[in-house]
Amino acid sequence: MANRTGAVQGAAVWRILLGTREPKKGIPRLGEGKETELTMKSHLILAGVVFALGTSAAVAQDNRIRVIAFGAHPDDCEVRAGGVAAKFAAKGHLVKFVSVTNGDAGHCVMGGGALAKRRWAEAQEAARRLGIAAYEVLDNHDGELMPTLEVRKQIIRLIRQWNADIVLSPRSNDYHPDHRYTGILVQDAAFMVVIPMVVPDLAPLRRNPVFLYFEDGFQKPQPFQPDIAVNIDEVWGKKLDSFEADESQFYEAQPNCWGGGAVVPKDPLERRKWLEKRWDRGPGPRVQSSLEKWYGPQRAKQIRHAEAFELCEYGRRPGDAELKKLFPFFE
Length: 331
Ligand SMILES: [Zn+2]
Description:
This protein folds into two domains: 2-52, no CATH class; 66-233 and 281-326, Rossmann fold, CATH 3.40.50. The chain is globular, with a radius of gyration of 20 Å. It is built from twelve helices and seven strands. By secondary structure, the protein is of the alpha/beta class. The protein binds zinc ion. Zinc ion (ZN) binds at residues 72-73, 76, 176, 179.
């Protein structure tokens, strides 16, 4: 991340020296990883200091796709998008996971700061195993998330700082209020990310990213619509590796606290087999038809594991050709 900080400051220098209002695509944005409300004056001071230190203002102009996924808890993104994330990462694209809460209520015999710390460390390990660039955990309490303006601004900042092309999140229909409100918060950030006077100390995106929802099984008020479905068979093992990193959830809380008391084998190999069996759910009929659309009927039949996403109408609305560019997995 050290290089990114340099790039952020370098971008500030260029924007101020050249008088550009918006950074070009691929430039990280001011305020990276901070919730500070910097004024223009402090930007100028920062730029001067950086310039005096001779920091390079070189800007990486690359073709890397920038994906940011928001889950409510530090394991949600792994479940809904761990496979796709590993595929993007393997192709050199940049993926960041964000947990909007710190997960401090996600257990039945531990909680608070100790659990939040444990889950933060698990999330970092999950990110490492998936090969993704970053996993940030926001310090909002688990089980208490509300769709406030303050959190909406946190989300707007994160999307801008990541210069996101693709934003993933849950839908707002879900059994868990944190999931519902994460869905609301992210969809409320869509479009706002391009408005200069909203969070005005941070440059807006030049164009609205493509926002997509994770798959879920809820039927009301309308079922999930798989607009795109991706074969994750070759990264299925990596996805399970990330689940194993989240040990407090997949081996403790889910089976023992709210999973009906399933017995988890003690032996590591047996435990892994148990985990795989528990999560080995083939694509449902709707996802299967989406796979047929994107891969053709013959290939689709052979796919065992997939992740699907629904387009959010409040983001940019890509056609199939643009979706193929954004999800470069269909050659
Ligand atoms: Zn969750």
